[in-house]
Design a protein that fits this description.
alpha/beta; Rossmann fold; Arc Repressor Mutant, subunit A; five-stranded parallel beta sheet; four-stranded antiparallel beta sheet; 8 helices; 41% helix; elongated
């Protein structure tokens, strides 16, 4: 899952980025509204964390422009005020949810995951492919009853394949899901991560297939 954080407080931004990367999110961060507007016009995200009060363009204007472009990406507003008027301002601007600073780390992660599931159209609590399970609430993978321990980028790729189970996912889509503002991954890197995932799934009845020239697809061996 790929997120954009728009926060001008460098210390808070650093804390949020580290927190969410440890939760296997890919996250970009920009410090002002004007840059956020440009990034959101050019890239796709699964959710946006947007501070209300930002330099160069406030968060409500960033959100208004986003919605005028027809972009329905879930937006979680970060606000320093918990008044009723402030909350109403968030929703009237087009926000999907809000959190009041300072917020608990678990609350932030839970709210993000809830927004993403809601946007996905009520994704089931558990996705199953053979003996591979994906727990939507915690974004954890299980092989049978054993947790599948993956590195962050491996997790991102398997998550993309699992949530589109049975459908072809292009290499370009996988690259976009993992690349941030700091640079893009090479196609060879995707091949390496797919190779590692196949080793993790070596004894599993879930299988990642390569469709030459098209991408990858996750299927249960029982489906063949």
């Amino acid at each position: 899952m790929k997120l954009l954080l728009v926060e001008d407080n460098a210390e808070l931004a650093h804390w949020i980025v580290n927190l969410l990367r440890n939760q296997n999110f890919t996250i970009d961060c920009v410090p002002d509204g004007e840059r956020a507007d440009g990034v959101l016009a050019a890239q796709r995200y699964d959710a946006v964390l947007l501070d209300i009060r930002l330099p160069r363009m406030d968060g409500k204007e960033v959100l208004a422009r986003l919605r005028r472009r027809g972009d329905k990406v879930p937006v979680l507003m970060l606000t320093a005020y918990g008044s009723t008027d402030d909350k109403l301002d968030c929703f009237s601007a087009g926000a999907d949810d809000y959190v009041v600073k300072p917020f608990d780390a678990r609350e932030l992660v839970t709210r993000i995951e809830t927004l993403i599931r809601r946007q996905a159209g009520g994704m089931p609590d558990v996705l199953v492919c053979g003996d591979l399970q994906y727990l939507a609430g915690t974004r954890a993978f299980l092989l049978g009853t054993t947790p599948l321990l993956l590195r962050r980028r491996e997790h991102t790729i398997l998550e993309a394949l699992m949530t589109r189970q049975g459908k072809t996912v292009s290499k370009a889509a996988l690259m976009e899901s993992m690349s941030g503002l700091g640079g893009e991954l090479s196609a060879d890197a995707i091949d390496l991560y797919i190779h590692r995932l196949r080793k993790h799934l070596g004894t599993s009845s879930a299988q990642i297939m390569t469709l030459r020239g098209l991408g990858y697809i996750l299927r249960s061996k029982d489906a063949f």
